[in-house]
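worker-3 :: picked Malto-oligosyltrehalose synthase
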Amino acid sequence: MPRATYRLQLHRDFPFSAAEAIVPYLHDLGISHVYASPITTAVAGSMHGYDVTDPTQVNPELGGEEGLRSLVAALRAHGMGLIIDIVPNHMGIAGGENPWWQDVLRHGQGSHYARFFDIDWSGKPLLPILGARLEDVLADGQITIARDGEDAELVVYGEHRVPIRPEDQADLPADGDVAGLRALLDRQHYLLGWWRTADDELNWRRFFTVSELAGLRVEDPQVFDETHALYFRLYAEGLVDGLRVDHVDGLSDPGTYCRTLRARLDAIERSADVPGGPAYLVVEKILGAGERLPTTWQVDGTSGYDFMEEVSAVLHDPAGEAPLTQLWHEFSGRDLTWHQEELLARQQLLSWSFDSQFRACAELFAELAASRPESRGWTLGMMRRAIERLLWVFPVYRTYRPRDNPPTQDAMLDRVRAAVIPYAPPGESGVVEQILDWLVEPSEGDPLLQAARRRFWQLSAPIAAKAVEDTGFYRYCRLLSRTDVGFDAGRFGQSAAEFHAGNAERAEHFPAAMLATATHDHKRGEDVRARLAVLSSVPELWRQEVTGWDWLAGGEGTGMHAADRYALWQTLFGAWPAGLAADDAAGKADFAERVNAWQQKALREAKLRSSWEAPDEAYEQLCADLVTALLTEERHAPLVGAIVTFVEKVEPAFRATALVQLGLRLTVPGMPDTYQGTEQEDFSLVDPDNRRPVDYAARAGGGHWKGDVLRRLLALRRDHAALFAGRSYVPVEATGPRADNVLAFRREGDGETLTFAFALHCSAAIIESDGAMPDRDWWGDTKLGDVLAADAFATAPIHLSA
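worker-3 :: C-alpha cells ->
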C-alpha cells in the first residue's frame, strides 16, 4: 500500500524517461509511489492522456512498454512503486486515430466493436464534425476522397479522415462529382452532421459535452476484458501496484464495476520478486454535500477531491461570510444566491446542451410507465417535466443500485422531494415521486427499469458537472477559493468539529483514501486558494483594497462587466507569482499571458457574456487588453504597486494558512498525494496552466519554507508508518477564549502516540502583528490539554508532540 504518492502528468515532452530522472529526488522527498496520468495510447500530442485511443498498448509517445519497464526498474531500486490512472468510461475518437471507432464507422453493426461504444443503433451514429450544414459543406468542396492508402477514405476539411464501407471501395465517385459523393455518404454506416446538431441529435453517449470522447459500455464483460487486459498484465508482472479509476460515475454500474475490478486484481498471482497485493484502488468521485462513498464498492477510497473540499472549508473564517457575500453582491450587481445560480445553470444546460440525452431518457421512462399498472396512462410530457425538475435540484451526481446506496441515501432522497415539489406542475407531484422510487427500486429481472435508470444516471452526472463546476462556479465569485472541483460553493466554511467528524469517518471506512489539495483538474492551485482564504479573516481590509484597485483601473470605464472585474482582482491577488516584483517587466508579461488564458476560459464557461459555442471576441479582446495594460503599461504602475504591497502584507498570514493546509494533508487519516511541483508555491490556474512544466532542478536543493515542512512530515510518515496507516483518530479539545482558533487531534498506533495542533483563522492577528504569530495576549489562557496555545504556536502554526 502506498505511504505517500506524487502525481505526474506524463506526455511526449515529459515521458517515462523524464519521470525516471527524478526518481532519486522523489525518494529523497519521502515519496513511496509515483502516481501517473494515463499511460495507454492517446490522441497524438495529448497533454493529459484521457483521450485514450488504444487501451491495449502503452503509449509510444511516453516511451512505450520499454520506457515503462525502465521507469519501474528505477522505482524498485529505490523501494518505490507505481500507481496509474485508467479511463474505463470513454475513448478519444478525434482525428481518425482510434482503430476501434474507425472499425465501427467502416463496418457499422457488423464491426467487432459495434457494441463496445454506447451507441443507439436504432439509427446511424451521427458524426458532428462539420462546420455547417452537409449540403453547404459539399457545395464548398470541403469533402473529398483520399485514395492514397490501402482503402479510400473521406477527407473533411483536409484533416478529418473518415472510413468508407468496404462495399463501396470498388465504385467511388469521380473527384468533383457532388451528386455521386452525396449518394456515397447516404450508403455509409454513419451520418455526417453540423457540430451544432450534437446537443439535439447525438445518438451515442459522449463524455459530458465533448463530442471527441465516446462513451464505452464497460458493463459488458467482453468490453471489460478487452479494455482492461493490459492493466491486469502490468499488475501481474509487478509493473504497476494500483489503479485510480477516472470518472467512475459515468459507468452504468460503478459498484459492480469496482467489485469486478477488485476481484480480478485479487485473483492475480504477482511475480515473487515484487511486492504482494492487494492492489491499491481509488476512484475519482465527486461527493455531494452529505454524500458518502459506498463501502460495498471494495475500493480504498476516493482520489481526494472530498478532502480538498473539507480542508478548504475549515481554513475559511466564518466571520467573513456575511461581509464578503455583501461585497460580492454590491460589487458585481449580481444578486443571486449560490443555490439560485446553480438552479439557473442546471435549467439552462439541460435545455441547451443535453436535449438528445434528455429526450432518450424521458422516452425510456414513458415506456416504463406504460408497462406498469400504477403509472399506465402517464404521458411522455409528464415524464419530461418530472425528470427535468428532478435534474434541476438533484444534489448528487447520481444514485446507485440498491445494494450500493450509502446510508445517507434516504436523507438525500428526502432532500430531493422537498426541493422538487415547488417546481412540479400541479397534479404531477406523484409522477416525480414515482420516478424517485424507480431510481432505488430493485431491478433484477426488469431490463426496462435498468435501462431507464441507467439513462437517468448518465444524464444526472454530466448535468451536475457542467452546470455546477463548469458554469455556476464561473458565475458565482463571492470568494474563488470556495469554487473548485468537488466543492460546495454554498458552504463558506466548516467548523473544526465538522472537520473532525469527516476525518473520523474516513479513518473508520477508508483509512487509505487519497488526500489531495492540488490536482490536474483544479481550477486554482492550492496556494491560490490558501491566499484567498486569508481574505475570509480580513473582509473589510479586502473591501478597501479591491475597491481601490478597481478605481485605479477605471472601474466601469474599462468596459468590463463588474462581476468579471471582481473575479479578475481575486485572480491577480490570489495567483500573483512568488517574488514577482512590480518592476519585473518580463515576469509581469508572462503573468498577463497566463491570466488572459484563464480569463478567456472563465468568460466562456460562465456563458453570460461569451461562450465556447458563440464567443464574443470583441468583449474577450477588451478584457484581455485590460489585463495586458494593467500588468505592462507604465500608467498602471500605481495599481501594480498596490497589488504587490497587499500581497506582501498578507504573505506571513498566507504562509501560515498554506502550511496548515499542507500539514493537515500529511497527518489526518488517509494517504497524501503531492501534485507535481507543489512542494513549492502552487499559484497555478485552471488547465492547462496547472499542467505547466516543473523545474525540478530548482526544487532539488531544498531550503524552501513549504518544501522543508513537506519533507519533515513525509519523513515522519515514513518513520511511523504503522501509526499513520491505522484507523486511529481522536479529536483533542481546546479550551479558553481562542478555542475556536485551534484544531487538534491525536494519532495512535504500534505503541506510539502523536498529537498535532494547528492554528486556525489567525490571519487578521498575524497581519496586525506585522507578520508574527499571535502573541500571548491574543491567545489568553487558551489551552490544548496542558499546553498553553501561546507557547505551542509561538513561531509556527503547526505544533507536534509525542
